[in-house]
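@channel sequence for tomorrow's demo:
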Amino acid sequence: MVTIVDTLNRPQEKSDVRPRHPEKEHRPDNPVQRKPKWIRVKAPTSPVYRETQNVVRENNLVTVCEEAGCPNIGECWSKKHASFMILGDTCTRACAFCNVRTGMPGPVDPKEPQGVADAVATMGLEHVVITSVDRDDLDDGGARHFADVIAAIRKTSPSTTVEVLTPDFLRKDGALEIVVEAKPDVFNHNLETVPSKYLTVRPGARYFHSIRLLQKAKELDAEMFTKSGIMVGLGEVRNEVLQLMDDLRAADVDFLTVGQYLQPSKKHHPVMSFVTPEEFKGYERIAYAKGFLKVSASPLTRSSHHAGEDFADLRAARKAKLGH
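structure tokens (generated this afternoon):
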């Protein structure tokens, strides 16, 4: 896991002094294992990386690239690709795998939609990914804010395609409808892991609720692409992954991503296994055979990695399937 901390250009805030994961402070340590050679990545040095970083800072934005410690940040930011995380940098959930700060979030920033839209325009993005922390404290889980961000991007950059990676909106009636009515091009919600691991890995979520969320999104807008992703190496077995694929196909999900879980700290869930590139290739072949339009499966695959190129592949695959 590569986490970029900019101590030169980003002033430390008071919030940085608080424990990042207070709910994990008293958990026993899980030693962080040495990563195999196929997961090594280089630290970012490109001038374009700094340009992207400056755009993010100038618009007072949060990116999941930084908050989640994504190993692909150097590659993506050097290509002016970034996934924007709206609704703050503090999550109301306490997932065992996640590096995003946990706690009580602050108020929603009404200027954020335009700030994101301005950054998209400045960077000249053809495709943008908008995700968020879980906001269980809000009546709609942040759905209206998602819609406002989409609308701002459409107004400022009408040719840019928009992908949303949403929370599960658990017990937030009507929230999904608000997001879908805003017409994102791709609706993504990650299952993260197989159902047998939810109580230890994703305790605040419910597996079949997430499946139903994806299914209902497609029912509400059949033209919209749907997408979901999981991590492997959390202790799942192969047949559980194959069953999860079947569950997603039953929900008519178009796109599946499969990546290696990497442990952010000794307080997070341990890596139970490092899945080999050959095993990832096997998952990819099986997923395509099950009918997904697009599959990305590799150790460094993440939901937003190569999202623009993948969206182009999705459109081409659908056209080929429909015969036009």
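heads up for whoever presents: Residues 1-15 have pLDDT under 50 and may be disordered.
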